[in-house]
Design a protein that fits this description.
Layout: H1 4-16, H2 24-39, E1 47-51, H3 57-63, E2 68-73, H4 76-83, E3 90-94, E4 108-112, H5 120-133, E5 139-144, E6 146-147, E7 167-168, H6 169-177, E8 182-190, E9 193-200
Parallel strand pairs: 1-2, 1-4, 2-3, 4-5, 6-7
Antiparallel strand pairs: 5-9, 8-9
The protein binds S-adenosylmethionine.
S-adenosylmethionine binds near residues 53, 74, 75, 112 and 117.
């Protein structure tokens, strides 16, 4: 019996890539994806872990420029889609991003719209794991529903499911930067959508 989270994403797999930019949610997700891709600063020896890879758009795009990409997702149906036309240097794995796998030679972690179901405790445990998984000079780029204006003050219907968390971008930035762990660039794209580019110090 699969969990509600897996069922939620399995049910969306078939139509996920055909959703255009007609809804504001899709428009900002596509925009955030493009910004995330340009912030990654990858080279041909880099190894990327893409958390919540979905149908593999970020993983497959970055694969053309790096040594290896591991895409991790909890939804078998999203992963079935991801496997289609996957380049040979991309490996898609089923797993929970709250327990990320060890990836040899890891240089970058990406997560695009994948963390909205995590509680604050889980998300911050993930930031701590990311710091341990990356070496100094490594990079984490995360695009998500991180608000810079409190959601109750914004007219937008982005929170599709009641389990989606409301996350303050500046709170996350401060958490990541504590004790000199990461240096973070915060880019608000919309009052409810931000990209965090975190350089591992
Ligand atoms: C909105 S989609 C984003 C997919 C992809 N990153 C993109 O930008 O197109 C969210 C994805 O995160 C995955 N996901 C959500 N929670 C997860 C978890 N705890 N572990 C692994 N994957 C998860 C879902 O299965 C889904 O494929």
């Amino acid at each position: 019996m699969s969990s509600p989270l897996v069922r939620f994403w399995d049910d969306r797999a078939a139509d996920y890539d055909s959703a255009g930019i007609e809804s504001a949610e899709c428009y900002w997700r596509h925009t955030a994806t493009n910004v995330l891709l340009t912030r990654c600063e990858v080279g041909e020896t880099d190894v990327i872990l893409d958390l919540g890879c979905g149908t593999g758009n970020v993983a497959k795009t970055l694969a053309a420029h790096v040594k290896r990409v591991v895409g991790l997702d909890i939804s078998p149906k999203m992963l079935d889609r991801a496997q289609q036309d996957a380049p040979s240097n991309v490996e898609f794995r089923k797993g929970d991003l709250r327990r990320p796998p060890h990836v040899l030679g890891l240089t970058h972690i990406t997560a695009c719209y994948a963390l909205t179901a995590l509680t604050t405790t889980e998300r911050r445990a993930l930031w701590d794991q990311a710091w341990r998984m990356l070496k100094p000079g490594g990079m984490m780029v995360v695009a998500d529903l991180f608000w810079t204006v409190p959601p109750e003050q914004v007219e937008a219907d982005f929170f599709e499911a009641d389990w989606m968390q409301s996350v303050s971008a500046t709170d996350e930035m401060e958490f990541l930067e504590r004790d000199g762990r990461f240096r973070v660039l915060l880019e608000p794209l919309h009052p409810l959508v931000s990209v965090l580019t975190a350089a591992r110090l």
